[in-house]
Amino acid sequence: MDKPKVVLGVSGGIAAYKAAELLRRFTESGHEVRVVPTASALHFVGAATWSALSGNPVSTEVWDDVHEVPHVRIGQHADLVVVAPATADLLAKAAHGLADDLLTNTLLTARCPVVFAPAMHTEMWEHPATQENVATLRRRGAVVIEPAVGRLTGVDTGKGRFPDPAEIFELCRRVLARGVTAPDLAGRHVVVSAGGTREPLDPVRFLGNRSSGKQGYALARTAAARGARVTLVSANAALPAPAGVDVVPVGTAVELREAVLAALPDADAVVMAAAVADFRPASYATGKIKKKDGQEPEPLALVRNPDILAEISADRPRPGQVVVGFAAETDDVLANGRAKLKRKGCDLLVVNEVGERKTFGAEENEAVVLGADGTETPVPRGPKEVLAETVWDLVARRLV
Ligand SMILES: Cc1cc2nc3c(=O)[nH]c(=O)nc-3n(C[C@H](O)[C@H](O)[C@H](O)COP(=O)(O)O)c2cc1C
To answer: Residue 334 Cα, ligand 1 centroid: separation in angstroms?
Structure first.
C-alpha cells in the first residue's frame, strides 16, 4: 500500500521548532511527508532540517522546479495538509484565499482534510480579525485546533501556546483515518466531563472512585478531530491534555456541576462521562481526623450530591442541545440502564458493566448506547476511541 501523503506546512512562529517533532512522528509511523515552510518559517528553522528529516526537497516559493508545477501538484496529491504552527498571518491568508507562496497555493489546491494548529500571543489569537478568520476556515471544513494555555514566547503566559506535538499527531492520525473533508462536528461546541470526583473528608482524605478519565479523554480527542470546539471538564484525571481541547480541572461533584453549567449555554452537546459521586461527607474536618485511644470511629454521615445529568437534561439552556449520560452498572446492566435513561431524561445513555478489573483504567471498553427513541446500539469490546466515535455518530445525527 502507498504511504499516506502528508503536507506539513510550517509558518513563521517561534513554535516552528516543535514542528520538527511532529514531522518525526509522521515519518516514523510510515507517512510520506512533504514540508512546505513559509519564508518567515525559515528564520526560525532552516530548510536543511526540514529536508533532512522528511527526505524530500523543500521550497517556499512557487518558482522552484516549475516543470513539476509544484504549486498545484503538492496539494492535489496530499491525503492530509497540516499547518503547524499556523501564524495569525497564515490564517488570514488562508481565510481570504491568498496564494502568494507555495504553502498558500497548496492550501487552495488541496481537496483532502486540512488541519491548522495556530500558535501566537494571546492578543493576536483573541483579536476579532483572527477569530473571524478561524470561524471562516472552520465553516469551510478545516479543523482549526484551539491553542493551548501556558507559557508563550518570553515571559508571557496565556492562550496561544502550540499544543503538545504528540497530541497534534494523534489528532492528525484520526483526521487522516476518517478521510472526510467536511468534519461533522465543525462549528459545534461540545462539553465532555471526564474522570472521577473526589469528596474531601479532611485535608488528606477523600471519598473517590476508580474512574481514570480515559473514556472522557477519548471522547474529547475524537470530537476535536471531528472539528468540534471541546470543553473538557476533568475531575482528577492524570492524563495529557488532548490537542485543541480546553481543559477545566475540577475536584468535587459540586465543582464539576459549576464548570459544566458555565460551559453549557452555547454548547450543542454535552457528554457526561465522568463518574460523579452520588454522596459527599456531610461535614469537612479542617484538620486531619485522628484516631482516639479506645474509641471507635464516628459513623460517616453522607449527604446527596446534585444530580447533574438529570438537571441538565430537564433544563437545557439551548433548544436542541443533545445530552448524553453514562451508566456504570455492576449487575442487571441493561435493565438498570433503561430505567436510568427514563429517570434522567437524557437523549442517549452509554451503559457499561464495571468492576474492579473491568473498564476502569482499561484501554478498552464495551457498551450499549441506549437512545430515548428506543434505539439500542451495541459497541463490541475495543479501544475507548471506538466507543467515543460511535457516541459522536449518534450525537451528530441528533444535532439540529
Ligand atoms: C521572534 C518572533 C516570533 C514570532 N512568533 C509568532 C507566533 O508565534 N505566531 C504568529 O502568528 N506570529 C509570530 N511572529 C510574527 C510572524 O513571524 C509574522 O507575522 C510573519 O509575517 C509570518 O509570516 P508567515 O505567516 O508567512 O509565516 C513572530 C515574529 C518574530 C520576529
So the answer is: 55
